[in-house]
Amino acid sequence: MGLWVQSDGEGLMRTIRGRIFTSLIIVMVCSVLTTVFLFSRLIDGMLMDQARNQLKLQMTKAIDIIEGGDVGDLSTEDLELRFRDRMFYADFFVVDANDKIIAAGDDNKEGQTIHVPMSPRNHFFTLDGQKMMYTHQKLDHGLRIIIYTPMDILKQISGRVLRVSFISIIISFCVIFIVGLWFVWKTTRPLQQLKEAVSKFHPSYRSLGIPQGDTSEIGQLINTFSSMSGRIQKQHQQQIEFLQNVSHELRTPLMSIQGYASAVKDQVVSVELGLNVVTAESERLIQMVDRLLQLTRMETVQEEWKLTEVDVLEMMEHVHQLMAPAAAERHIRTSLDGDALEMAVPAEQIFQVAMNFMQNAVRYASTEVRLTLKGAPGGFCICVDDDGPGVHVHERGSVFDRYYTGKAGITGIGLAICKQIADRLEAVITCSESSLGGARFSFEYKRGDRQG
């Protein structure tokens, strides 16, 4: 599954998959060790409590036997200790006031002297090098009876329980490990696929797309990369189309300049006519280059736009007057409607938005273009309507994209500049259907919007 070897030669700990996998192992090992430790303590405690209770029960039984006869009637077979499904026998001895054993389950211990502490808190003593758990009780005539069992028996029972428990834990560990391994692989596999796709991605290769992700966080990340790759490919395609369009637009005036310069040189046309054409085409070239430089500057340089107190309606009248000759040339009727409105605005940028709107409308209109200035709370709205073919609803979100050109478009820069200005001013720029039947372009500006 690629857990141990990485294609670029990086170590295990430098991969996300390796880190998750290693963390899973560490957590599981720590959990198993902690569980075994706590469980062993719990089992030992339970067995100790059970052993004490068993010894106390056998003490009661032993005293009943002794009281019903004498000390010699008691034997180890009478002292049964049961732990789960196993049975053992406790041992005993009776000592006199001098700690001398006078009776015992093992006859070899009779006559020996042994000291067993009678503290109520001490339940252990050592006999023949082995640790014993015991309980004791006073008898008549200064005698005492001690019933005990070796701790080795309890350890055997505890070990047996722990072995079974440990096997269960190991099986659980293996199951969790396999599930965790599958989960890590399932989780990180999309990242590996994303890495491979990104490494092969090129804006020109449309067939090599980013795979689609699911609804998880990683899936959303993959979808984000997929969306980003789509935008990059679209941007790349737009750049190619833009370069082609600009090259064509620049080539036309250059060819005109070259042609008329040659014609003047060959005295085919008059010098005056040739100079007029060269001057007009040169101005057209300068205007196109200036727009390109302006768009590039707006996207890369955060210059400050100064606010100027102006009559916005008077500015719109100036726009209307400048566009009148171009509209008359195409037999387009233009009108202006609005009320006087004085406000501190970035005048140059607002003027440019209105000019671009009007140029676009005049280029597409059939017979009429209408420029409207509407006052709005804290600002104003500039609307330009035309009766042209309009903009299809699916294309309205793209008309402000850089390099987007319609059927009568030239470079796809004018409306992109308007969008850049609107974004910088946090204004609202929209394209919708006009009441004249064509397109409406709106620019809504508020006094509180950010400038610069």
TrEMBL record:
Q: Where is the Histidine kinase domain?
A: 245-449
What does the record give as EC number? 2.7.13.3
Topology with respect to the bilayer: Multi-pass membrane protein
Give the transmembrane region(s): 20-43, 161-185
SMART domains documented for this protein: HATPase_c (SM00387), HisKA (SM00388)
Q: Fetch the InterPro entries from UniProt.
A: HAMP_dom (IPR003660), HATPase_C_sf (IPR036890), HATPase_dom (IPR003594), His_kinase_dom (IPR005467), HisK_dim/P_dom (IPR003661), HisK_dim/P_sf (IPR036097), TCS_sensor_his_kinase (IPR050428)
Q: Does the keyword Nuclease apply?
A: no
Q: Where in the cell is it found?
A: Cell membrane
- Limits of the HAMP domain: 185-237
Its keywords, alphabetically, are: ATP-binding, Cell membrane, Kinase, Membrane, Nucleotide-binding, Phosphoprotein, Transferase, Transmembrane, Transmembrane helix, Two-component regulatory system
Q: Which GO terms describe its molecular function?
A: kinase activity
Q: Does the keyword Phosphoprotein apply?
A: yes
Catalytic activity as recorded in UniProt: ATP + protein L-histidine = ADP + protein N-phospho-L-histidine
Q: Mind telling me which PANTHER family this protein's record contains?
A: SENSOR HISTIDINE KINASE TRCS, SENSOR HISTIDINE KINASE YKOH
Q: What is this protein called?
A: histidine kinase
- Organism of provenance: Paenibacillus chibensis
